[in-house]
Amino acid sequence: AIRKCRGQVIVHNTQVTPRDLDMGDVQDYFDDVISEVSHKWDDLARKLGFSENQIKGIESLKPDQDRRCREMLHRWRNRDGREATLQVLKQALIDIGERLTADNL
Questions:
Q1: Distance from first CA to last CA of the chain, Å, rounded?
Q2: Model confidence pLDDT, tens digit, residues 2-14
Q3: Taking the model in full, what pTM does it have?
């Protein structure tokens, strides 16, 4: 039997993370990313392949950094679909100097 318990998955009384089973959605980590790095949302956007025009568009639509970061992450997830993985997000965070945040996801 598989069940979630405090961010982990219990499989036959063995604890593994969702990453170990390739379960879950990268979107589950957006709140953590936003709370830690929304002040660098535009740098993260560049690492995730957004153009300067796309970044300016998000800037003009959303009034604060948290909302801009959330909008950018959702656009990335929608644009890249199955390619928008936790591994890609973690590497982008490392690339902008946020290794601790990446390691904590």
A1: 24
A2: 444 455 444 444 4
A3: 0.76
